[in-house]
């Protein structure tokens, strides 16, 4: 394709409002106009590169597939250490270490093309990439202009979609009394369920890193039995205040009922363990010890599976903490 076709590209790819729809249109268009083993749009966040949308013939790429960002060819492309269009990766020494890492995952990449997708503030959101198992001819570099055009299109749609989502979230934060736990001011079970329903589609669209935490207080029953329910209410309020102070603004916190709490943290899997340790430390310091289970939200499996896994992990943690208290007594 040459520069005279740019207008046709714009006409064929009139940007939809949803970012995921634009990604699908772009990779499908590229798969037809520049056939390679795979075309994909990826998200880069929390140290990982994750596939959002793919048109794949040879690699088995699918939404949710990921690899550490430092082990990818895209990382060197984004930093400018390697070209955006590489007809033959064996001719670029800087790509050999990432290529060996990819080969270990049954990812022989002989030709590579990639370009950044940026967020409204200019930060890296992800990449538009193409991979092929055989080298391409020197004329392959002529596609760089097309890639720049399409990545700009995706960046524009991302900005519009992000602004729309942020506005909708601001409106949704003014939740009704029916969705708020009156004792703690957190979401109640109904509000939690509605938040998950609203955010499920958004999470799949943007591929934001997230983990679900399920929490169960260790001492509420004892407080109620020995000090009365007013003391138990203060115990719950102190728990909510501690959690609210220790978490990021915008990460939803809920009291699901009784001594059960839940949250979605916008962190990657590598940060989940340290987050749990920090929360348990601040809750212990506040005199509201809590068992916590955590699970990453998979792009393909979504919130439901993560909640089940986090719930199971929470009960495992509760048994371990109870055993430790018995041993230490």
List keywords for this structure.
GGDEF domain-containing protein, 329 residues, Beta-Lactamase, GAF, Alpha-Beta Plaits, alpha+beta, 2 domains, 4-stranded antiparallel sheet, disordered N terminus, 10 helices
Explain what you see.
This protein is an alpha+beta fold. The protein folds into 2 domains: 3-166, GAF domain (Beta-Lactamase); 175-328, 2-Layer Sandwich (Alpha-Beta Plaits). The chain has 10 helices and 10 strands. The radius of gyration is 24 Å and the shape is elongated.
Provide the CATH topology of the largest domain.
Beta-Lactamase
Helix content: 40-55%
Rounded mean pLDDT is 88
Q: Compute the number of strand runs.
A: 10
| Radius of gyration, whole Å | 24 Å
C-alpha geometry? elongated
CATH class value of the largest domain: Alpha Beta
Beta-strand residue percentage: 15-25%
Backbone structural class: alpha+beta
Strand line-up of the largest beta sheet: 3-2-1-6-5-4
- pLDDT < 50 stretches: 1-16
CATH architecture of the largest domain: 2-Layer Sandwich
Oligomer: single chain
Tell me the domain tally.
2
Query: What order do the helices and strands follow?
Result: HHEEEHEHEEHHEHHEEHEH
Q: Helical segment tally?
A: 10
Distance between the termini: 75 Å
Tell me the major beta sheet.
Answer: 6 strands, antiparallel
Task: Provide the CATH superfamily of the largest domain.
Answer: GAF domain
């Amino acid at each position: 394709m040459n520069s005279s076709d740019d207008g046709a590209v714009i006409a064929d790819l009139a940007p939809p409002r949803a970012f995921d729809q634009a990604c699908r249109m772009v990779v499908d268009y590229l798969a037809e106009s520049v056939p390679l083993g795979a075309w994909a749009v990826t998200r880069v966040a929390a140290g990982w590169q994750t596939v959002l949308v793919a048109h794949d013939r040879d690699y088995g790429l699918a939404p949710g597939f990921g690899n550490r960002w430092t082990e990818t060819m895209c990382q060197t492309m984004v930093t400018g250490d390697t070209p955006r269009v590489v007809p033959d990766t064996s001719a670029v020494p800087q790509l050999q270490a990432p290529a060996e890492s990819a080969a270990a995952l049954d990812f022989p990449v002989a030709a590579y093309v990639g370009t950044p997708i940026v967020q409204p503030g200019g930060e890296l959101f992800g990449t538009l990439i193409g991979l092929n198992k055989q080298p391409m001819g020197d004329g392959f570099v002529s596609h760089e202009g097309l890639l720049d055009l399409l990545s700009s299109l995706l960046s524009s749609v991302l900005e519009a979609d992000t602004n729309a989502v942020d506005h909708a979230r601001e409106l949704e934060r003014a939740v009704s009394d029916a969705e708020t736990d009156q004792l703690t001011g957190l979401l109640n079970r109904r509000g939690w369920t509605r938040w998950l329903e609203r955010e499920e589609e958004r999470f799949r669209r943007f591929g934001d890193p997230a983990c679900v935490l399920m929490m169960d207080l260790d001492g509420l029953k004892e407080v109620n039995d020995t000090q009365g329910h007013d003391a138990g209410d203060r115990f719950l309020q102190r728990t909510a205040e501690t959690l609210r102070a220790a978490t990021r603004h915008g990460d939803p916190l809920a009291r699901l009922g009784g001594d059960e709490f839940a949250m979605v943290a916008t962190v990657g899997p590598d940060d989940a363990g340290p987050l749990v340790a920090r929360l348990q430390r601040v809750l212990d310091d506040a005199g509201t010890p809590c068992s916590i289970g955590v699970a990453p939200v998979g792009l393909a499996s979504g919130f439901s599976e993560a909640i089940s896994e986090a719930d199971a992990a929470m009960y495992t943690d509760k048994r371990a903490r109870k055993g430790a208290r018995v041993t230490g007594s």
